[in-house]
Amino acid sequence: MHAGTGLTGREALGAIIDDPALELVGVAVTTPQKVGVDAGSLCGRDDVGVTATDDVDAVIALRPDCVCYCATAVRREEHAVEDIARYLRSGIDVVTISTIPLIYPPAAPQEWLDTIGSAADQGGATFYATGGEPGFISLNVPTALLAGAGRVDAYRMDLYAIQLDAQYPIWDVLHESMGFGKADGYVPARIAYGKVEADWSTVVRYVADILGLTLDGLEVDWETVLTPTDLDTAIGVVPAGTICAHRWRLAGTIDKQPIVAVQYFAAVSSAPWPSHWPDPGRLTGGMSFHISGRPGFRVDFEFDKAEIGDTVNPGVTATAMAVVNAIPAVVAAAPGIIELPLSGPSIVTRRATPRPAPATTRKQELHHG
Questions:
Q1: Is residue 369 pLDDT above 80, yes or no?
Q2: pTM for the structure as a whole
Q3: Which of 252, 319, 265 has its CA nearest to residue 95?
Q4: Which burial class, exposed, middle or buried, applies to 185 when counting CB atoms under 10 A from its CB (0-12, 13-18, 19+)?
């Protein structure tokens, strides 16, 4: 069963429909216009005979094995947690991308853990939170990289959104959230409202924990860049003297030194790049993992551009896939909260495209004969 049909939710719903190992039995929505609409139509597929409803009791009565919960939690975090708990109390497993701090439960808000844990115990159900970023990119990828590490002096993940106006051309969002076009002194929303700590402290604490480090604390630092000239961008003109880029860093410290850190860079196209910022190389919208030690290494991660005609950002699709691909493993898991990121051969897509078998050569025939 699926809940939430926003941008990422639609991607997840389509993936459930397309997955040969999964059967969709219900869809829960909150938008009146979507009630009664076939699930296939909600995500650009042919009709599948499952219609959306806003009656949660009705979908619970279907007794699905699992709910893929993709409803937004923005400014309704407590409501989202209670929604999830309701399914768990009914004995239904839940996978979600909505509650970001729960991607690493040991660092999540205790009141959320109490609610989710109690509900899972009551219903004998399993809960798992994941996503893209934060999510499998910031948890599973460094876990794999650190399998080849020796002495680790410091770990840092840099995230780059260098042409954000082209990647997400919505003025209201980028003007308010990122501060693009705002006067000097404006505090970007994710800094002002503590979203950096809320969403990313789980990642910093997870990496520190798997490295066996005890952090003294977390520190946030940030800065903005002003454009010296008017910049023509996909969201309009960013006037000279206003913000065209910003950087923030959340670091876990030991003896006042940043040991585990996440750092984010956002800029509009053609924005000046400060010389003291790290060189992104060829990245325009990706991540760079840095491990200082013996051995030390850097690994860059970037999604390919979407296929022709596909208007969905590949990062959105990957976020949806991370939660859908986990469903069979979560259903098979013991009841309770899954505390570590799932990985391994059981958490992969079931929609790989078969390739035709290669033609047998004379040499192969002789070898096998």
A1: no
A2: 0.88
A3: 319
A4: exposed
DSSP letter at 347 equals S
Q: Quick check: is 141 in a domain?
A: no
- 139 in any annotated domain: no
201 located within any domain: yes
- What one-letter code names the amino acid at 174? L
Q: How many helices (H) and strands (E) does the chain have?
A: 13, 15
Q: Under DSSP, is residue 150 helix (H, G, I), strand (E, B) or coil?
A: coil
Scan for tokens 């991540």, then name that residue: 287
Q: How far is CA 127 from CA 30, 91, 212, 330, 365, in A?
A: 22, 11, 25, 7, 51
Instruction: Give per-residue pLDDT as tens, 114-125.
Output: 999 999 999 999
CA 214 to chain centre: 26
Amino acid identity, position 123: G
Q: Element (H or E) spanning 228, and its range?
A: none
Domain range for 158 is: 149-294
Neighbours of 181 (CB within 10 A): 22
**The domain boundary residue, chosen from 294, 326, 360:** 294
Domain count, the chain: 2
CA distance 234 to 123: 49
What separation, in Å, do the N-terminal and C-terminal C-alpha atoms of the chain show?
51
Provide Rg for the chain, Cα atoms. Answer: 22
Per residue in 299-321, pLDDT (tens digit) is: 999 988 878 888 788 888 999 99
- Average pLDDT over all residues of the chain: 91
Q: Could you tell me if 125 and 171 lie in one domain?
A: no
Residues 132-170 have pLDDT tens digits of: 888 999 999 999 999 999 999 999 999 998 888 887 888
